[in-house]
């Protein structure tokens, strides 16, 4: 079977064209939309990602402040910074980069991000609005998976989607979004007894566990669609996904590449959220 | 195969014994714990349920105010009432009865319930705290399903649980709770293409769709456990579940009865939440 590459580049470009125009319209009538990127890690992969976000913002006419709290920052320090940026009318959007310092969890600090600036949808209120089907910002990676599938015209209504991974930032919010698309959704994870049995009956498999080579050809039914959300660093320092592409190719009808699949769409959606937050703030 | 009846009466009695003692301890040092039941419907099944909650509260030494806004109440009226009770220090806990008036949805009004009084866990913040694995009140029916399974020593770790129904009050929060128990979770619903294919491979099937006879023997694998969350009124005015018990019995290894299964545990957990809310408020 031919396996179509479900690239995210064209979709990201289309989203970015719209975002750039909206950012320019805002900047014509006031300050440019402004994103505060709060960083409390010296992880190199994270630094690379933060840098790519800053470049994306710059290209789109979005101002981006990087606030570096250091890898030793306490939960109190991070909360205080997030609260200050939440209260600052010059800041339209806030994103807290992970990983966080040892002993600090996202749950410890995320509620200090005001919901109307929480463009990556990490705060409990944002997650609750999502669970209730209400209007908040959706975690960008989850939204990117759904948008990528729609862009490639993969049907979801009544289809069975298996999500591998149950993180608060990807797996769980993605399950909510897929239910809202009328898919039947299975969430599997590290404690799932027989992963292949669960995933091989699904029409769509989403790998979002953060483990290299977790999803192989044996996990995928003939003709299924596979979306790879993983961004792992391999032994050579190369970014690779959760899917063993070689064994899946020829078996799946579609597979999203890493890099170039979910990643660029995620960045594009984050930047769109920044512009939306700014539009809402200025309209008040 | 013998099908064990997974009754909830013993578990409810054990929870109630603890709740009654804690309510008495609170009342010995101040006012009794106080629940405000806000009602905006003239639905007879709802009236029956509200009455049973009032009786349960009375038996446990919990004060219970029924606030009747009428079946024509607007969203504004309901929101204002919920906000007033949220601000009233004499009220420890608030529960909004459904159904709501035509044109008013739970999502329209639930955010007016303060999270620390939201004992049925319906507000977006409560749902988000649940999604993030944090401490808020969990919707009582979902919690009752998990507690009933644990009480009857049904293993959940690594097991595949199929939840039929994706409501914000049962299906979705139940999926979160089951994931937290390390189960693999599938959420199926009215748009699921082949329900029996999805449910018949599960170790546990939870029927929570609100449709009489939706889950039959054909939907249940040999030896699986079936939990019936449905409380539907049949043509004779009798309360019946979502499970066709006759065809499931002999095939499942366990089945929760309706009435007498999830129902009494739900009421008991709601009352426990009221006492917990009061304990937290008094400790401040």
Automatic annotation (TrEMBL), chains A, B:
<comment type="function">
    <text>Catalyzes the oxidation of 5,10-methylenetetrahydrofolate to 5,10-methenyltetrahydrofolate and then the hydrolysis of 5,10-methenyltetrahydrofolate to 10-formyltetrahydrofolate.</text>
</comment>
<keyword id="KW-0368">Histidine biosynthesis</keyword>
<comment type="subunit">
    <text>Homodimer.</text>
</comment>
<dbReference type="Pfam" id="PF02882">
    <property type="entry name" value="THF_DHG_CYH_C"/>
</dbReference>
<comment type="pathway">
    <text>One-carbon metabolism; tetrahydrofolate interconversion.</text>
</comment>
<dbReference type="InterPro" id="IPR046346">
    <property type="entry name" value="Aminoacid_DH-like_N_sf"/>
</dbReference>
<dbReference type="InterPro" id="IPR036291">
    <property type="entry name" value="NAD(P)-bd_dom_sf"/>
</dbReference>
<dbReference type="GO" id="GO:0000105">
    <property type="term" value="P:L-histidine biosynthetic process"/>
</dbReference>
<dbReference type="InterPro" id="IPR020630">
    <property type="entry name" value="THF_DH/CycHdrlase_cat_dom"/>
</dbReference>
<comment type="similarity">
    <text>Belongs to the tetrahydrofolate dehydrogenase/cyclohydrolase family.</text>
</comment>
<dbReference type="GO" id="GO:0006164">
    <property type="term" value="P:purine nucleotide biosynthetic process"/>
</dbReference>
<keyword id="KW-0378">Hydrolase</keyword>
<keyword id="KW-0486">Methionine biosynthesis</keyword>
<keyword id="KW-0511">Multifunctional enzyme</keyword>
<dbReference type="InterPro" id="IPR020631">
    <property type="entry name" value="THF_DH/CycHdrlase_NAD-bd_dom"/>
</dbReference>
<dbReference type="GO" id="GO:0035999">
    <property type="term" value="P:tetrahydrofolate interconversion"/>
</dbReference>
<keyword id="KW-0658">Purine biosynthesis</keyword>
<dbReference type="Pfam" id="PF00763">
    <property type="entry name" value="THF_DHG_CYH"/>
</dbReference>
<keyword id="KW-0554">One-carbon metabolism</keyword>
<feature type="domain" description="Tetrahydrofolate dehydrogenase/cyclohydrolase catalytic">
    <location>
        <begin position="6"/>
        <end position="120"/>
    </location>
</feature>
<feature type="domain" description="Tetrahydrofolate dehydrogenase/cyclohydrolase NAD(P)-binding">
    <location>
        <begin position="139"/>
        <end position="281"/>
    </location>
</feature>
<keyword id="KW-0521">NADP</keyword>
<protein>
    <recommendedName>
        <fullName>Bifunctional protein FolD</fullName>
        <ecNumber>1.5.1.5</ecNumber>
        <ecNumber>3.5.4.9</ecNumber>
    </recommendedName>
</protein>
<dbReference type="GO" id="GO:0005829">
    <property type="term" value="C:cytosol"/>
</dbReference>
<feature type="binding site">
    <location>
        <begin position="165"/>
        <end position="167"/>
    </location>
    <ligand>
        <name>NADP(+)</name>
    </ligand>
</feature>
<keyword id="KW-0560">Oxidoreductase</keyword>
<dbReference type="GO" id="GO:0004488">
    <property type="term" value="F:methylenetetrahydrofolate dehydrogenase (NADP+) activity"/>
</dbReference>
<keyword id="KW-0028">Amino-acid biosynthesis</keyword>
<dbReference type="InterPro" id="IPR000672">
    <property type="entry name" value="THF_DH/CycHdrlase"/>
</dbReference>
<dbReference type="GO" id="GO:0009086">
    <property type="term" value="P:methionine biosynthetic process"/>
</dbReference>
<dbReference type="GO" id="GO:0004477">
    <property type="term" value="F:methenyltetrahydrofolate cyclohydrolase activity"/>
</dbReference>
<feature type="binding site">
    <location>
        <position position="231"/>
    </location>
    <ligand>
        <name>NADP(+)</name>
    </ligand>
</feature>
